[in-house]
Amino acid sequence: MLVTSLPVAVCHSTTEALVDENTQPLTQLQKLLATIQSTSYQRLFGSQSVGKHVRHVLEHYHTLLTGVNDSIKEIDIDYEQRPRQTALEENPDVAAKAITLIKGSLTSSTDRSMDTPIVIHHPIGYEGRSLPLTSSLGRELAFLSSHTVHHMALIRLLCESMSITLSSDFGVHPSTLRYWQQHPH
Question: Residue 144 belongs to what domain range?
């Protein structure tokens, strides 16, 4: 099976650019989800599966976007307290629908400043303590873009082991795709 590549879009505002850097890989994931069979999606390689990686990625977006949308004043995010929704890792259709919602929420976040302050609660040790770290909406969108592409690179390896063919840009960060466009091989 072949999942086709995406064009690299050109954006004019910082907000649009960060949203685009997140929606491009999410769109690639959605294309994979439209073609992958449930058995392949759920197939375990040790403790890993395509579905588990997709769930992990989507839950990070859900955590950030819920925090942003539910907060009027200070936005607090704790990625460790994300919901673990097994349906996302078991059913590619459920995951694809979740991506549609996430992309819509990302697009609506363009009315917020990328400097919108966020406090990230980062766990330390095993005693349940967390360290509050100052961040911003822009920084967290940059993190999620890289985080997503990192997991897509792992998904790529799992797919290749199942003879699922993906486009050459699947699991490649948009900044690398831009570089490739500017510096053809």
Answer: 2-74+82-113+137-182
* pTM of the full structure: 0.88
16 within domain boundaries: yes
Reading the block at residue 147, the tokens are 């985080």
CA distances from 80 to 59, 128, 129, 153 (A): 10, 11, 12, 22
**Does residue 129 fall inside a structural domain?**
no
115-157 pLDDT per residue, tens: 999 999 998 888 888 899 999 999 999 999 999 999 999 999 9
């303590």: which residue's tokens? 129
* 123, part of any domain: no
CATH code at 58?
Answer: 1.20.120.450
Of the listed ranges 10-24, 78-92, 160-174, the one predicted with least confidence: 10-24
